[in-house]
Write a structure and sequence with these properties.
With 247 residues, the protein is of the alpha/beta class. The protein is 33% helix and 27% strand. Helix 4 crosses helix 6. It is globular, with a radius of gyration of 18 Å. The termini are far apart.
Length: 247
Amino acid sequence: MTQKMAAVSVLNLGTMKYQAALRVQNILVARIQSAISSGQDPSNTLVLVEHTPVYTTGMRTKGYSQVEEARLKHLGADFVRTNRGGLITFHGPGQLVAYPVLNLRNFAPENSRRKALLGMKWYVWTLEQMVIDLLREWGVEGCRSPHTGVWVGGSKICAMGVHNSDMVTSHGLALNCDTDLQWFKHIVPCGIEGAGVTSLTEQVVEEDRVIRVGEVRELLVKQFAKTFQCETLPVDDSVRDEILNSL
């Protein structure tokens, strides 16, 4: 029997501080988990946001002391320790961040839904493929590496760090569009020594062309729908207002 195409609401938060967007994710995760426990059909959401400057770390934060945190804050960025996978990275203007808050049971193949670990491996691989396909819109050839994320040659163009709570996802990906890459020079991005960081603007063939977040956002939503075989629709204004008013 053919699986019913899942619906995913698209919530565009515009520009928002990392901590506020994290609270939005937590609200959406709680709603999915509540729906599952009560036997209702959960609402999946693709959250899109552009953050103000912030350095974030994943679950392995022992290498980042209070001194290191203070040093990075002195640069003018926030510093947030999170429960996502991966090590330190930067989010800021010119970077499109996507947080799919999904019930993976609606998306992952049946053999991957049996165990959370298999489901997450499928999920990360699929996110990477979505970005690789998206980059071709600008003639950029992305690829995988032994490290998570999407790369162009030896430079990472899209960082990924995800979290799973009983097959409900949060956190996600950060695609550099016209990001100021100088921010990355103050850290070892994702803890990978010797690796570079790049952006769509840096990689496009056309000289002096700047790839803005707004240009990428619409195409990412279309590619997400194609890759995850789902229907996307904007979040109702009333639902958006309800979420933002609860922060």
